[in-house]
Amino acid sequence: PRYLAVFDFETRFEGHRRTAGQATQLGDRLVLLSFAVSTNVPPFNSSIHFDVDESDENLFDRFWAHLEQISEKANKLLQVRWRSPLRQLNKEITQLAAANKLKWVDGKRLKHLTRLRTRLDRFIGSLPVLGFNSGSFDLPLVKNFIAKKLIGTEYHIIKSGQSIMALTTPTLRVLDVLSYVAPGYSLASFLKAYRPELPSEAV
User: Fold this and answer.
1) Which of 65, 92, 137, 155 has the smallest set of CB atoms within 10 Å of its CB?
2) 8 Å CB contact between 177 and 131
3) 82 in Cβ contact with 117 (< 8 Å)
4) DSSP code of 137?
């Protein structure tokens, strides 16, 4: 099976003060209260990981660290699963690189196999992390914390308006399920479609 993780955030309203010129305004803002992560990557697949903290930044740090741990384990498992084809691919790339230096072969196949190896490395090293409506709600809620995690690393973000539809790093690929289902799909409809064995009270 393809290894992946799914997540969900719970939030709370927190009162805060905001100064605008000489006036002080009181208001409420949404902050992260808890998170839940489930995955099919052993040994993390034994239970749903749930965490709560009064500090939303500390909580997000633990959320991100947990996903990184899952990704690292998935990477190791996939390296074993793909060991034989990767070894064969590396062998052919090495042979073609040597022959290409001597102008014995056309470099097109070498470029093709090198690109293939790069794609396989990304496939193996980047864990898909799925959220439902995460692009419009969960990720924008913690975008300032995410920005700190992205400093000094390679990343790509796909946005639609204010929504973050995809966020990729070398180890994580965070995606919004709503980008891949029909318009108007609710979470209950999604679960009924893809997990019909779940009892009705669970959805």
Assistant:
1) 65
2) yes
3) no
4) I
- CB-CB contact of 141 with 11 (8 Å): yes
Peptide bond into 43 cis (omega under 30): yes
Task: Quickly count: other Cβ atoms within 10 Å of residue 59's Cβ.
Answer: 21
pTM above 0.70, yes or no: yes
Cα 171 to Cα 122: distance, rounded to the nearest angstrom: 8
34, 156 contact by CB (below 8 A): no
Query: Which has the closest alpha carbon to 5: 69, 59, 70?
Result: 70
Supply the pLDDT for residue 179: 86
Structure tokens at 114: 């090198």
Distance of alpha carbon 112 from alpha carbon 77, whole angstroms: 26
CA dist list (Å): 134 to 46, 60, 62, 90, 166: 24, 14, 18, 38, 9
pLDDT tens digits for range 130-169: 999 999 999 999 999 999 999 999 999 999 888 999 999 9
List the alpha helices (DSSP H) in the chain. 56-81, 83-101, 108-125, 139-141, 143-150, 187-194
pLDDT confidence of residue 20: 54
Three-class secondary structure of residue 88 per DSSP: helix
For 134, list phi and psi in degrees, rounded to 5. -70, -30
Residue 83 parent element (H or E): helix 83-101
